[in-house]
Structures are given as C-alpha cells and as structure tokens.
User: What shape does this take?
Amino acid sequence: MMKILIPVDGSKASLLAVHHALRLVGAGLKARFVVANVQESANLYELVVAHDPQVLQQVSEAAGRDLVRPAVALLSAAGQQVETAVASGDPAHMLAEILESHACDAVIMSARGGGLRAAVLGSVSQEMVQLSVVPVTLVKVPDETQADD
Assistant: This one.
C-alpha cells in the first residue's frame, strides 16, 4: 500500500489534490495519506513583540492543524487512513523532511495555492519537484478555482 503526502494550505485549490487522490483510490489505488501543512516561521517583528516565543509556536501549530482539517475530513469520510503533519519553516524543505520522516512513496499537490498564497505555493510545488526523491503529481488548478479563494 502506497503512502502519499498531500500538502495543503487551506485553500480550495489545495483541496483539488485531495479530490484527485480520491479519484485514484476510486480507480483502485491502495493508499494511505499524510496531510501536511507548513506554517511560515515567525518574522522578526513577531519574535520581538511576543512575550513568549512558545506562544508563537503554539499559535502556528494550531493554525496548521486547523488548515489540514478539511482535507482530513474528506479523506476520512471516504474511509481512507490519514495521518497529519504540521511544521513551520521553509515550506518546500519542511515538506521534504515530512516526506522522509513519514516514509511517503509519492506526493500529490496542487500546482498553485489560492488567494494571496498563489505565487508562494506555485513556487513550493516547483521546489518539491526538484527536492523530492519520490514522484510528485501536480494537480492543475483551473483559473476559476483560483479566483474563488
């Protein structure tokens, strides 16, 4: 059984990767999934203003857990085995670490994020193609989906 990493950022566009994975399962693929979110590291202002850096980490982790929830719900509702991973740092490098630490066999991700993160996730998907030691499937996002985020 394959283990597939699905990075999500909370956008409708990133959920297209989940829908693609479910179509593959419907076609007979035996898989289990790791849904991951990587939060950007705190910036200098946040570090200076925060009275407790642990609070920033807790907020970051809570935000990541919240953003993976819709993808996990879709996969769970379809009866799929799902793990989650939340990290903070450089998205592509952290996703590569998650890929390795969870022993994933493949990655399915949207080619573009939605809203303000569109350019960032697009570059993350390209970096993942370069960094990944396993196959990466990029799910093209129709223009109307990007406009909805």
Notes: The beta strands are 2-7, 31-39, 82-88, 106-110, 136-139. The longest strand covers residues 31-39.
